[in-house]
Amino acid sequence: MKKLISEDLQTIDLQLNDFDANLTDPKQLITQDFAKQLSSNHSSKNGNSDDANAVWYSIEELENYINFIKKEGNEKGYKVDGIRFYFGSYPNDAKHAEKAGKSTIFLTPTGQKVDAMKGAALNFVAKDDSAQSDDINEISPMNYGSMGNPPKMVYPSN
Question: What is the CA radius of gyration of the chain?
Fold first, then answer.
């Protein structure tokens, strides 16, 4: 029994630390101080609004969505190359209850049809990668993260 518990804990530890050690740090990282400034600027711009100021998704939800859009993209003939985050506002109706009129973000996959990519190789013009990525409207966007509405989230949240 003791051995089984030890193996189970080791398995749990491996799952919690399941990442590719060969990955490099993202180029888009910012400092904590700059993140605080961005959050403060946003709060100042929007005053004492009771609107959402943060949206949270679990790692599992994001990984699941990434796997979903890759699978759907492949099945529909797309090379999925990213996710675009859009700002939005919920409709002012009873269906959306406490979220009615509040801000949100939603995620949509980007990429290109595989056939379009073959032809584009002949007419390649160097551009910013994001400029070449169109929204893929044949794959469902994702919404409904946990909102940071009152009481307000303050960055950092701890």
Answer: 20
